[in-house]
Amino acid sequence: MEGLPQVPQVADLVERVKLDERIVYFPVRHHSPACAWHVGRLIHDLKPDAVLVEGPRDATSLIPMILHAKTRLPIAIYTTYVQRRKDDIPLRYAAYYPMCEYSPEYAALKAGAEVGADCKFIDFKFPEMVHAEDKEPGGKAVSLLDEHYLQHSAVLKGVCEKIGVRDHDDLWDHLYEVSYKQLDTETFMRNVLAYCSLGREDYTEEMLEAEGCLAREQAMAHAIAQETGRVVVVTGGFHTAALPDMKPRMPKAMKVAQDDAMVVLMRYGFEQLDRLNGYASGIPSPEFYQRGWEGSDPQNLIIELGRELRRKNNEVSTADSIGALDHAHRLAQLRGHPEMSREDLLDGVRSAFIKGSEDVEGVLILAHARKMLAGSRIGDLPAEAGQPPIITDFRSTAGRLGIDIGSVDAKEVTLDLYRNRKHREVSRFFQRLRFLNVEFGENVRGPDFVSGEGLERIQEVWRYHWAPRHEAALIERSLYGSTLEEAAAALLLEQFAEAEKQGQGRRADLAARLLLEACRMGLHRQSQMLLDRTTGVVNEDGSFPSVVSAFESVLVLNVSREPLEAHHLEGVPELAELLYARACYLLPELAATPDEELNGVLNSLNALQQSVQTLGDDSDRQGLRWQHLRTLSGSADGNPVIRGAATGLLFGDGQIYPEKLADQLAASFHSDHQEGAAGAGYLRGLLSTARSVLWQIPEVVSEIHGVLANWDEARFVNQLPHMRLALADLTPRECDHVARTVGANLCAGTFEAHRDHQFSEADLLRSVELNKHVTESLTKDGLGSFIAG
């Protein structure tokens, strides 16, 4: 055909397209209105006995629902596969098979049903495809209508350059979409087959076999060979080029448990169908082609876009809209297009709406244009489609709670968790979806009872919007239960069991967080049991940070029973007491804390001291804590950072006199422990829990000053990083306070910091290095006494 290079083998293949054959192979590009129009016309003319369509063959039973009178497109066949492995976590795979009104596959099924043909899908089942194509596990769902074969073609890229079109999509529109009604079906089929055959020219048999393409085509050839009457075969043109000569062969039978493979129908949306949003099959901008399919002039999109831009205060006038329309029509004529193509329309927008640079002023305008061309239509399915119960529960719950799932536009809802019971139900709905990893709603702000942040807030704000991937994620979670509550409870119990197993039961923090999650999601039937099991985990947990974190979580639960509706729980104060006692019992063991865990332990020491105030820091609790802190502080070979932190906590509670604290600090500086870094480490720990000693106890600063003054330069440089780390958490105001104290000791008067010059750390280090070289040079020349003088 015109515009495409002539390749001998392709020309021979195209000549074999004849509509009087018993088996007619119809090549298509997925989601092409031109292909859909011609395939429907062909089937009505031929009235075949069977219509065979590329698609997972175990989805054939879904065809009646695909064609149901209440089904509103776009929809998708959604298929999953769980590959079980011995002694390892399973691999999970998922894939979509989308269809809209102008998809050739849907047009073929619809026309086939209208003429009484037997309609079937003939491609691999999804588990077979996974093993044939060696798909990557754990990623997002893929498309079963992947057209990367055509996009890969160097031949077609060369055609784009020769004709002067932008890309693969523009080339297809230029050759097929703008003039398909002017061609007879046989000619159109030959043209499409030539195009797709060229896309196959770059592939060797080894490449096709490695990607599983040959195995799929052999299976489709086997399905075709089983038919005895007149047949129309509708497949992607890449496969059509090979199917007539392909040797039939079915794959080796796979044993897949019923619960490990699923094929269902689901709603789909134009936003997801749009290839510009990442869908790697078919044609972009579905709303543009839907308008043409319905008989509406796509040029109306320019008018609508201009109106939308004016509404958003963009400088686009009515005259600009008229100019864009005129320019788009003239471009179509210049390019020989009987009808306006997508790029004709976009070029009209670029020429009239964008007043400056396309990559500056044009970014917003083109973003609006692409969004409008993509559209926001969402399909629907009848109740008879037999979707997993969890989807029915999701929809019915959303409807009962007044949550809109009929639009892809984002919405926001504000919930009063303390005074409105229904609002708490809505919050639980969102929280269950979040826990199930269904990204339907985003928590914008409000109290987070699990992390303990924002508890002063009484309102919770969620932003949400529906997308097909949300229902797909729910379908995956249907393995855990038939309702959101059941699935969330089952997943939570699974994770809780893992918390009990990890590290020989040492995950009280995770157990307590999951207990809070259960309450936040309204899983009241499980929460009491989880609380009891958490007690067992605590008794085996040897991690101080884990126990303290669990202590904080249980205290949050205790004070937040109203919004969490957790009044029925028994044993919450007792569990808090147990966690506090366990944390105190573990204090002496912190002496052996390795350096890489210091930050977490220091934070936990402060958290324990602060959190016990919520429980009530009575004399019994204080005595228990002080007893173990003294043991930790006095551990001779313990980590000096932790010993210093324990000393600081005791000082804050009035259990150590200032003079004794200063003596302990001095002893640590004169110790050879940790190659002389013990003093800086002790100071770091001390300041992490009681930084006020720097200005409350003059002896501390004096001791530090004395130590630094007595260090030689080599030791000073060696210890400088440790000292900097010890003082790193001081605020600017605290640094200024300490500097004034030091200045007063040195100058015996008021110290004023000079801020006329800003010296960087590099400047100071360079000065030290220069001073060292000058000193060495003067000493070498016999002028050392000059320096001393």
Q: Can I get a quick summary?
A:
Strand 3 and strand 4 (88-99) form a beta hairpin.
Protein described:
The model has no long low-confidence stretch (mean pLDDT 85). The chain is elongated, with a radius of gyration of 36 Å. By secondary structure, it is of the alpha/beta class. Strands 1-7-2-5 form a four-stranded parallel β-sheet, with helices on both faces. Strands 6-4-3-8 form a four-stranded mixed β-sheet. It has a three-stranded antiparallel β-sheet with strand order 9-11-10, with helices on one face. Helix content is 56%, strand content 9%. Helix 2 packs parallel to helix 4, helix 28 runs parallel beside helix 30 and helix 31 packs antiparallel against helix 32. It has five domains: 270 residues, no CATH class; 81 residues, no CATH class; 215 residues, no CATH class; 118 residues; 36 residues. The chain is built from 38 helices and eleven strands. Strand 3 and strand 4 form a beta hairpin.
